[in-house]
Amino acid sequence: MSLIEARSLRRDFVVPQRSSFARARTQTALAETDLDIAEGSSLGIIGESGSGKSTLIRLLLGLDRPTSGTVTVDGRAVDASASARSLHWLRRQTGLVFQDPYASLDPRMTAEQIIREPLWALDIPGDHRARVREVLAQVGLEPEMANRYPHEFSGGQRQRIALARAIAHRPRILVGDEPLSALDVTVRAQILELLIDLRRTTELTLVLVSHDIGVVQNLCDTVVVMKDGAVVERGATADVLLHPSQEYTKTLLAAIPVMPAPPD
Ligand SMILES: Nc1ncnc2c1ncn2[C@@H]1O[C@H](COP(=O)(O)OP(=O)(O)OP(=O)(O)O)[C@@H](O)[C@H]1O
Ligand SMILES: [Mg+2]
Fold first, then answer.
1. Could you tell me if 150 and 181 are in contact, meaning their C-beta atoms sit under 8 angstroms apart?
2. Where is the ABC transporter domain (predicted)?
3. Do 70 and 148 touch, CB atoms closer than 8 A?
4. Helix, strand, or coil (residue 136)
């Protein structure tokens, strides 16, 4: 059994029309999609803007309700109607880094409070203060920075705080929506190393939306390519990136800027 299983997963949005005479339009953000993610594996999700990548990962995490279809994590049904107990369990299993770290960090909380909050909310045993310092170091931030507020950090530092918060409770599954996009080359290389290391030393399962082929190449075993709410190609990372079968994938890869190789 796969750790994460999606079956015929679909999400439609009703888009109101500007004129009150026009009928509301339905937009399919995700058409029937099947997906299997094995424990300890790493999946990259690529595709043009608006292709349904964020919609898909939100559904996988029970943050959004599918129009139809199912998601299970470790055999348990996950959707917005799941019990509080299941959602608590799911939160314990997962760490999440959103596309926009500024929007996801509470401006009234210090970095320390932001990183500690899930440890407290999820009843994680151990010394939370010490764990905060440990993960801050892991993402390359100084312990003194723990007392600062989100607006006192640069974009890349905020992204690192979001990542520290996501990994602090040692989740089994880490899901990132462009988690490295706001980082400069050096920090990006450091965070990449950290993620590679977490994958090597733990059974971490990684699901990563990325526009950055270098990140996908370094971190992901398999890739799915999305277009207009559908998976148009999937396979082993090397196969998809080096020998794409779809014209769309070829065009997409040609258009994606390749970040320079990290310095040694
Ligand atoms: N809450 C919503 N209401 C209406 N339409 C939505 C909503 N969320 C997403 N959509 C639409 O669904 C489609 C898929 O959106 P999604 O955010 O999943 O794309 P994406 O692949 O993550 O794009 P990007 O790379 O720009 O983040 C888009 O056409 C978007 O406009
Ligand atoms: Mg998105």
1. no
2. 9-253
3. no
4. helix
Protein residues with CB under 6 Å of any ligand 1 atom:
13, 15, 27, 29, 47, 49-55, 99
Instruction: DSSP for 183-235, please give it.
Output: S-HHHHHHHHHHHHHHHHHS--EEEEE-S-HHHHHHH-SEEEEEETTEEEEEE
Identify the CATH assignment for 4-16+24-255 out of 3.40.50.970, 2.130.10.10, 2.40.10.10, 3.40.50.300.
3.40.50.300
Ramachandran assignment for 189, one of left (phi > 0), alpha (psi -120 to 50 degrees), beta (any other): alpha
Tokens at 83, concatenated: 């019990």
Centre of ligand 2 from the C-alpha of residue 175, in Å: 13
Span from the CA of 123 to the centroid of ligand 1 (angstroms): 34
How far, in Å, is the centroid of ligand 1 from the Cα of 176?
16
Residues 6 or more apart whose Cβ sits within 8 Å of residue 60: 4, 6, 35, 71, 73, 78, 175, 207
CA-closest residue to ligand 1 atom 25 = 49
Model confidence pLDDT, tens digit, residues 101-159: 667 789 999 999 999 999 999 999 999 999 999 999 999 899 999 999 999 998 888 88
Residue closest via CA to ligand 1's atom 28 equals 50
Q: Which 8-state DSSP code applies to residue 24?
A: P
How much is the pTM?
0.91
Which atom of ligand 1 is nearest the CA belonging to 56? Answer: 18
